[in-house]
User: Fold this.
Amino acid sequence: MTSQTLRDARKYEEAMGNKIKKEQRPGFHLSARVGWMNDPNGFSFHNGEYHLFHQYYPYDSHWGSMHWAHVVSDDLLHWRYLPAALAPDAEYDRDGCFSGSAITLPDGRQLLLYTGVAKESQPDGSMRDIQTQCIAVGDGTDYEKYPENPVIDRNLLPEDGSKYDFRDPKVWQKADGSYRCVVGNCTGEGDGRILLYSSRDCIHWKYEKILAANEKRFGRMWECPDFFMLDGKAVLLVSPQDMLPQGFEYHNGNGTLCLTGTYDEETDTFIEEKNQAIDYGIDFYAPQTVLAPDGRRIMIGWMQNWDTCNLHSPEQPWFGQMSLPRELSVKNGRLYQQPVRELEALRGEKVVHENVTFTDVIRLDSVKGRKVDMELLLRPGDEQNIYKKFAVRFAQDENYHTAVSFRPYESILKIDRKFSGSRRAIIHQRRSLVNSGNGRIKLRIILDSFSAEIFVNDGEHVLSATLYTDLSADGISFFADGQVTMDVVKYDLVME
Ligand code: FRU
Assistant:
């Protein structure tokens, strides 16, 4: 039975979503049908197509009582809106259906495992959110909440586990048919950790252990965990709140963390080896992955930042977009990301310029546009005298530009969107320490109407940022202090 709350949301999104013109949206990045979007949820492959849900408040372009929006796609780029899947309409989730994941059950139905939020009055008289894990099962469009929800509550917390910060379950099935899920939690002191649960049927859950603990290293509460094996390594992705920067890592406040290591299936023991940020740009949080039928591990993230996502005008009909879906791999314990290969099918006109040597500002024939896939291969024009700085400017006209610059002596890549149309004095720049040898570096820049994603050295580092530049600003130019030689391959990206 669909509740009135869900029916209202479905009616509203259908009426209001249709009023938003195609040109007001990104070309190939998913944006909210109407209203507010945050974390990706339930990223899965079900019944022959990709399903993606997300945190959603249809009635305003600011965060509100959380629903789950729902989209499907064949290629991870053309998304079709389905009716909202969950609304906060039960006793245990009346204050929000928070993040979670999805899986196909052996009988072919799709199960959503999510966090229910319900305020409870506390002994001191205050009201606080209590978070529990709940399920809903359905046919890929309509979902029925389980009558005995919640399926994981405070009784399944380890000692000192917070019942207030206990959210974002990510489920997977093991080869033996049993299920596991990881859930974000913190201690009474607010120190993040990831809990592991097991189940035979995905309904009745048992607490197993603390899979990973922050020990006060990376921020505080750990949100939105994801855990999987990739290229022989165990990978734990989390989004820690309130991070302190460490060198060139973790500059994003509420940031992202990838821990790679080993995992012993028998004892469910994860041993960390390396840590890194997942994205080094300005806008990226709460990523989630899906295992594609062809074996690829594909990640998508919320291309926004909790510190700056509340500054837009309430008149804006939608807010929040997803990153490009990215294929993951692990090399030498490091997470690599590449745009999904499906993007290549959107490539239109190809422009190539080889061995372009320059020492000042240049523009190149037919190199412009706002929906672009552009690869730059840089090297010194003079090997004895390496250039001091390279920059590419895009979304450019007399008033606007966004720049990506590289200083080989420091090996620092910087994104600067100060002139991207933002009227707010928020963070507009981010620097990242990248790998380069003698001024050689490879940059793949994916531009969409309202974003730029920079993949450095085949995805060894990625920097994502949203842009608000007028779409008429479509210039691209290059700059060198010293002598740079560059190959450029540029495609327009065309959405049918
Ligand atoms: C992360 C997060 C999650 C939570 C959701 C609420 O961005 O805070 O931990 O489930 O957003 O919308």
Notes: Residues 38-39, 55, 66, 98-99, 115, 167-168, 223-224, 285-286 surround beta-D-fructofuranose (CB under 6 Å). Residues 4-17 form the longest helix (14 residues).
